[in-house]
Structure formats: C-alpha cells, structure tokens
Amino acid sequence: MNLILKNARVVSMSSGTDGYQPSFPQDIVIESGKIVSISCSNQGVLTSELQQVSVDSSLDYATYDCKNKLVTPGLIDCHTHLVFAGNRANEFEQRLNGVSYTDIAKQGGGILATVTATRAAQESELVEMALPRLDGLLRSGVTSIEVKSGYGLTLDDELKMLRAAKALENHRRIKITTTLLAAHAVPPEYKEKPDSYIDLVCEEIIPKAAEQGLADAVDVFCESIGFNLEQTERVFAAAKQHGLAIKGHTEQLSNMGGSALAAKYGALSVDHVEYLDEAGVKALAESGTAATLLPGAFYFLKETQQPPIALLRKHNIPMAIATDLNPGTSPFADLTLMMNMSCTLFGTTPEEALRGVTCHAAAAIGESKNRGKIEVGYAADLAIWNIEHPADLSYQVGVPHLHKRIVNGEVCHDSI
User: Fold this and answer.
1) Residue 401 marked in a binding site
2) All domains in the chain, ordered by first residue
3) 111, 145, 347, 412: which has the fewest Cβ within 10 Å?
4) Residues near 161 by Cβ (< 8 Å), separated by ≥ 6?
C-alpha cells in the first residue's frame, strides 16, 4: 500500500521533548507499509531536519488529507488476555456483596471458571467472543495488540487460544503478537503436583507452540499464588532453548524477585511490578527490560501498593502501559482509559502515558525498532485524532477522539 498523508500535525514520539510536541503540518510518504519520507507541507515552515517530499514516480499513491489533525503512532496494547470464554460479572457482584475471593474459588469461580469455559469453547467461538473486546480497543486508537494464552492449561487448549488470537488478524485491521502463558495457574488436575505441570509446560507445550509458530514470547505468573522462582526459571530456560522471547507477570502481590530473574534472562518486559524494589529496578536497567504498568487491575482490585514510579524514572526504565484486559481483574477495553488511570492513580505525566502506549509499549513486545514512533523506516501504523494536544488522550475519556486508524499503510474505515 502506497499512501501520502497530507497536512498531518505529527507527534512522532521520538526521543527527547520534541517527540511529544505536535509539528507544523507535514506530509508522510508511505510505501509498502513503511514510512519512507516525512516532509513539511506547503502551508508549513520547512525545518532543517526535514527533507522535501520524495516519491517514487514509478509507483501509484493514494492521498489522504489529515486537515491539520494530530497524528500519533498507532497505540499498542502490550499486555492483554483478550481471548477467553465465559463471564465473571457475577463474581464482581458477589465480591461487592461481601463474598470473599476464597469462597468464590471454592464455588468453582475465579480463574478456574474461565479455564472451564475456555476449554469448552471451540476455536471459532473464542474468535467471535474476542471480537467485541477487540473493537473496543480499536476505538481507542489501537493498531497493535499482544494477546496471551493462559486459560486453557492443557497442550491442546493453550494452542487453541494462540490460534484464535492469530486469527483475529483475519477479521480486523490489527497486528497481533502472541504470548504463551501456560504457566498462568496450576490446573485442577495438577493441584497437588505443580512441578509436574511445569514439566508439561517445558517439555510439551513450549516446544509445540514454538514448532508451530504460534507464540512470539513466553510469560509466567511468578507469585505466591502462581509459580515460585525455581519453577519460573525452568520456564524461562525452556523458552530460551526454543528461541522465544520472555515476559513476566512479576511483583504484583509481593516481592519475590521475579523481575530480577526475568531481567537475567533478557526479558522484554516485566508487568504489574507494584512491589518491585530498587534492586529489581537496577536489574531491569542492566538488561534493558521495560516495566509495564497495569492500572486497570490496580483499580479493579482496589490495591494500595503503587508501582515505584520514582525509581523507574531514576533508572530510566521504559514504562509501558497496557489494559491487562481479562475477565477477572481488569475487564476494560479502552487503552486511553488506562492512560488516564496511570496519570491519576500512579502519577505519570501525559507524555509518559503516551510513550507508555507507543514507543515503550513497542519495546515491551520486542518491536522498538519497527513500531511506536513516526520515523522513516518504521511501520506505517498510525492514529489520526480530533484533538489539539496529545495530553487530551490522557485527560478526557469517553469522547470519541479517534478520526482514523492506519495499519500497514492502509487507512481503516472502521465501522465501529
């Protein structure tokens, strides 16, 4: 797809303060889904850093006039559990009426309720159930999404979830990266033998997911109610052995050292991190690992321990922001809502929030050299907005700010 975007006020998200400031109107030339030139529009003032528009005369170009609208990189939701079956609104109501999570779990609720429903669903049903949630994310300007498995907890069901996630690209203009989260919880049939389940994950599920090209990364819920450090390291080692990237659900409920362990294995990101300490932050700095903030889960669970934002800033850790869209702890399908929550609950700035869903989110999925910025050579995944300043994306929720999405250089006329 070859396209020229005319009169775009670009928020490039390049490094430095200029990357957050809207530009004079610019023209963006896109060839085969990549940005090949950025130049000043006729009505603007050419700066020394921009080249005159350059197009290949042998190619045909479509033209889209942005009419001085703000253009940012397409938003990236780098942590979701988008594919699942079942509904847990009844548990939400029970908790508000004083029923404990333990009692709900004893009744067959909690994550195992989602596991039971997901195992029973056909792959095509999982796709159909995921589409309305995906549409919510598209409305908030998302062009790339990471989707985790983790509600199957058997070889066949984990692979089924990953196939369903990849199939979403056949239904919407979206880029999907997939993460195998088989080590999400101990399934009921392994209740008394979690190490045996880790054997299954390492010896069968990871190899099959890698062999079939279904996973880009492997994740582990390293927590007192999930998997311990020894079990987590076994999964990380197996992921590395099979050429898969690493991510981690770490330091959400306690400080177990999971983030430092993930950093040791060169993880792309560690996510939640409310209980992360300075030693863990320093480990992230040494490995270049991003920290993903998940304010939706913090809000929904009424948590009080905030992520160490000041420490993350001090050590220049890229802070990504994601929805954690899932049925139990963050049932939210709006990434701009997460930007607002990050600012109001965690004290990030609007600039940090926008970087958290663009360039830093790209780092969290291993795409920092391809997505998340508006620069020559980057993928032409963009969002066009009816706003005057990028801070509006963190400020006002519920107003339909999105004008158009552009995915792989194609203007999406989403019927949503």
Assistant:
1) no
2) 2-73+374-412 (2.30.40.10), 75-365 (3.20.20.140)
3) 347
4) 83, 84, 118, 126, 149, 150, 151, 152
